[in-house]
TrEMBL record:
Taxonomic classification: Bacteria, Bacillati, Actinomycetota, Actinomycetes, Micrococcales
InterPro entries, per the entry: DUF58
Keywords tagged on the record: Membrane, Transmembrane, Transmembrane helix
Protein name per UniProt: DUF58 domain-containing protein
Stretches for region Disordered: 163-188
Domain of life: Bacteria
Length: 424
């Protein structure tokens, strides 16, 4: 990168020549001195290194949650070093926001920028351009081409206390109560002593109360613990913001989360909660079944799931894809906006196969302001069809969880699903 002579240098040389000519014509020594000084100053400025060895570095810290719980803040620092520069100008532009210009005097500068985003996944956070101005404005230099700060923002994992479970857990060990007797779970019943029972399980109070003949013994039995298989399936057919008027011309750069942001957050929150209980979790995307993450648990599997969920983007389905495969007796979590019939078909197939299905509605909270009459009529038709699909899902025995709701409402819905399984 080399500096370009500015008009100030040419103006200084021209002015110096004019002053020398005037000094010769009028016999003025002072004009000759002034012209000579201008020529020397312009020549010195133009003969400088003009920004040789210029450097620009952009450092980005880890994203942290903002005050509203939805916005993520990414502290960013732009460090510049341009020898012989007198002023450094940094221009930053965030998606959907105004351009900001920052001027710093001196050959070095460190400009802090607070980048804010409501989106997760791969995205452009900031466009950075820098301009250096030499001494007395003799030259300018662009530290180009401009750089773009691109990052992968992991979805936020919300803490979930209650989790829905399948009817019959299939694992041999874990954190959930199984219907069979065993060790580690809650109290099951009092049972006559049988071969294989441990002596430590004899309940002497129950034996004294229930024994009819000498030698009758009764043991206290507990439920066995088990893990479960959880198949998380994400419908990536839509990426819509909550503003109904922008569904046709939606811009993900707006300061509103989209349905794909909600889906990534819901998928990661549920996967994290089940992994914390040592369950087996798999992940699949409807339009890209080849990129599925097979069932597993543990720290390494958690990182695989995090990466797979963070990179999911919307991709329109042109043809019906094959049905994702899920393990036997698995809990199926289907995340969708339910704006087409494919999620309803899949939920029906899985329910017919004996799986418990939890459908997660990932459409953001809707805003209908400033809609024209015909747009409002179209929105009512689309949302009415969507409500019919959700009613069909409930009628086939699947649970429906609205994710982008008040935290209390979401927690109450999960608690009701958990109690429903226990009653069953």
């Amino acid at each position: 990168m080399r500096g370009i002579a500015s008009p100030a240098s040419a103006a200084g040389i021209g002015t110096g020549v004019v002053l020398l000519a005037a000094a010769l014509g009028f016999g003025r020594v002072d004009l000759a001195v002034a012209g000579a000084l201008l020529l020397v100053a312009a020549a010195t400025a133009m003969s400088s290194r003009r920004g040789a060895g210029a450097q620009m570095r952009i450092d980005r810290d880890q994203a942290r949650a903002g005050g509203d719980g939805k916005t993520l803040e990414i502290p960013t620092r732009i460090a510049l070093s341009v020898p012989d520069a007198e002023v450094l100008v940094v221009t930053t532009t965030a998606p959907g926001r105004r351009t900001r210009h920052t001027a710093v005097a001196g050959p070095t500068a460190e400009v802090p920028v607070q980048v804010r985003t409501v989106h997760s996944g791969d995205q452009d956070l900031l466009a950075v351009d820098a301009l250096a101005v030499g001494r007395d404005g003799a030259w300018t230099m662009s530290l180009g081409p401009g750089q773009t700060v691109r990052a992968r923002i992991d979805p936020h994992a919300r803490a979930l206390r209650d989790l829905p479970l399948p009817r019959v857990p299939s694992g041999l060990t874990g954190a959930h109560d199984a219907p069979r007797p065993g060790d580690g779970g809650e109290f099951r019943d009092i049972h006559p002593f049988a071969p294989g029972d441990r002596l430590q399980r004899i309940d002497w109070k129950a034996t004294a109360r229930l024994g009819r003949r000498p030698g009758d013994l009764y043991v206290r039995r507990t439920l066995a613990t088990s893990d479960i298989d959880v198949a998380v399936v994400l419908d990536d057919g839509d990426d819509l913001a909550g503003v109904l008027g922008d569904w046709v011309r939606g811009d993900p750069g707006l300061g509103l989360p989209t349905s794909m942001d909600v889906a990534r957050e819901a998928a990661w929150s549920l996967a994290t909660a089940y992994l914390d209980r040592a369950d087996q979790v798999s992940f699949q995307v409807l339009s890209r079944l080849s990129s599925a993450v097979p069932r597993g648990s543990g720290a390494r599997h958690r990182e695989r799931l995090r990466s797979a969920i963070a990179v999911v983007t919307a991709q329109q389905r042109m043809v019906r894809s094959r049905t994702p495969l899920v393990p036997a007796n698995a809990l199926v979590v289907l995340l969708s906006t339910f704006l087409d019939d494919e999620p309803v078909r899949l939920a029906g197939l899985w329910r017919a196969g004996g799986h418990r299905v939890v459908t997660v509605d990932v459409l953001p909270q809707l805003r209908t302001e400033r809609l024209r009459r015909e747009e409002l009529a179209a929105a009512r038709i689309v949302l009415g069809s969507r409500a019919d699909r959700l009613a069909d899902v409930r009628a086939m025995g699947a649970d429906v969880l609205v994710w982008d709701a008040e935290p209390g409402a979401r927690a109450a819905a999960l608690r009701a699903m958990t109690r429903q399984r226990r009653r069953g």
